[in-house]
Every structure is written in C-alpha cells, then in structure tokens.
Design brief:
Helices cover 31% and strands 24% of the residues. It has 250 residues and is of the alpha/beta class. The strands form two sheets. Strands 6, 7, 8, 9, 10, 11 and 12 form a seven-stranded parallel beta sheet that branches. A five-stranded mixed beta sheet has the order 1-3-4-5-2. β7, α3 and β8 form a beta-alpha-beta unit. The longest helix has 15 residues. The chain is elongated, with a radius of gyration of 20 Å. It starts with a strand and ends in a 15-residue tail after the last helix.
Length: 250
C-alpha cells in the first residue's frame, strides 16, 4: 500500500469515515482509486491503520478502518527555532526537518530577518505532506511567529538552546553534544543575514545555551537546520536509541 493520508478524526478498527473533499478528490481523481482498494491512514493520536475504500461518491470517498499497522511514535524532544526565509527555502526547511523528526517549529524574526511574516497554513500543509510521505505518525506543532527576544525569554528553563553560531568561534556541535548529551533541546538557526552583534551578545549571556559551530563553512539557514537536527538525532536522539517503530509506545 503506498497511499498514506492523515485524518483529523481519532481512528479505531471498524470505524467508517467519510474523507474530506481534498483527500477524496486526490483518491478519486488523481490516484484513480477504486472500491475495495486499500490505503493507509493515521491520526496523530493513536497511530496508523490499513483502510479499505468502501464507497466513492461524487464529492466524497468513504473508507473503513481494517487493522492497526503502527502505534504513534513521538520523535525525540527537539524544537526548531527558525526565521522565515524565501518561500521555497522555508518549504524546504519545514519538509526536511519534519522528515528528520522534531516536536515543534517556532518561527521567529530577528534584527536581520527580511520577512517578518509566515503562512502557518502553508507550513502546516507542508508538515502534513512530509509526515504522510515519510511514514511518520506524529505531526509536529507550529507556533505563531514571535520576536527572537520573546522566543528566547519564553524558553522553558529545562530546555537547552543549541545556538547555531555562524561566527565559527564556538566549539563544534559534535564536541558539545558528546559532552552534554542534552535530551530536551531547541535548535536556533538564524536568518540569511545571520545574527546581529547585540543578539549574539545577548544569547551568550543566557543560561542553558549551547553555542555550536557546524563546521568551517557558512551554511544556508535551511542546511544548518537539517545538519543540527541530524547531529542531535544521531548523537543524542532517535537514531542513537534502538527503536522498534512498529511497536514503540510514545
Ligand atoms: N550572513 C551570515 C554570514 O555571512 O556570516 C550567514 C548566515 S547563515 C546563511 C544562516 C544561519 O545558519 C546562521 O545564522 C546560523 O544560525 C546558521 N549557520 C550557518 N553556517 C553555520 C556554521 N558553520 N556554524 C553554525 N551555524 C551556522
């Protein structure tokens, strides 16, 4: 079965569901599915299920939930604080970060952020599509955009802020992660223009901040996000732990 759809309703075996218009259109007109065909659905609450198409109407498709195929798996406790980039670059950042795995996106604007707005609907759509495509069962949350000072101020005390510092003056991320092994983190990546002098100064005075370097070249913001998340997952998070994704209870 290759078609995977996210359902807003909580799923249980035996339940009949009438899919929403966009998903029904996708199954009926794009994928040209027929009655009795099987698909996979997940709900961000209990997990993933095999389902069968039982009715195809003009504007809706009905499915029946057959059996559970995966228990919901919540990724390691990592957030990503990022500044809006150009549209396609933001799309890339959202899609790739979701695939790698995180719990929450926190969009922010700093002194050098060019675009101070972001379409949360577009982000949510990209998040859902990425989870559908990668086989995940958890939909990361996205918070409304807020200024960098506010986001930093509101960071919970027990969450370590991995500050991706492009000045290359900080220790390498692998050295820092090896030493500290922080389990609950927020990765902070700056905008195209980087952090201002005053922001960097402020960040360095805060408690629970881990300034890190991502190697000796300046990466684009979206690349930096992917690298930092990957490093955390491989040294501390999901990829370090031996997981049975089929049976793991979150
Ligand atoms: N305009 C800045 C400059 O020329 O120095 C570059 C900003 S970079 C495109 C965007 C963000 O990615 C930075 O603010 C930082 O958070 C992160 N970043 C990029 N390369 C990095 C590196 N080598 N180490 C740590 N963070 C990096």
């Amino acid at each position: 079965i290759s078609i995977r759809l996210f359902c807003e309703v909580t799923l249980t075996v035996g339940k009949m569901i009438s899919l929403e218009t966009e998903q029904s259109h996708y199954l009926k007109n794009v994928m040209r599915c027929k009655i009795n065909e099987k698909i996979l659905v997940f709900d961000n609450v209990t997990g993933e299920y095999a389902a069968e198409i039982i009715n195809i109407h003009k504007r809706s498709v009905d499915i029946e939930i057959l059996e559970k195929t995966k228990t919901r798996y919540v990724p390691g406790d990592v957030w990503l604080i990022f500044c809006p980039l150009k549209k396609t670059r933001t799309d890339f950042l959202i899609e790739k970060s979701t695939e790698i795995g995180l719990r929450r996106f926190l969009p922010t604007f700093s002194n050098k952020t060019q675009t101070k707005t972001i379409s949360l609907n577009r982000c949510r759509k990209n998040i859902v599509e990425a989870v559908e495509q990668c086989g995940g069962t958890f939909i990361p949350e996205i918070s409304p955009i807020s200024s960098l000072s506010k986001v930093i101020e509101q960071q919970p005390e027990d969450r370590i802020l991995i500050f991706c510092d492009e000045t290359l003056e900080s220790k390498s991320i692998n050295e820092c992660l090896l030493l500290e092994r922080p389990q609950k983190v927020a990765v902070l990546v700056g905008p195209e223009g980087g952090f201002s002098h005053s922001e960097r100064k402020l960040l360095r005075t805060k408690k629970n901040i881990l300034p890190v370097s991502l190697g000796n070249r300046i990466l684009r913001a979206e690349t930096a996000a992917v690298v930092a998340l990957t490093m955390w997952h491989s040294m501390v998070g999901d990829w370090l732990k031996k997981l049975d994704h089929q049976n793991h209870e979150s």
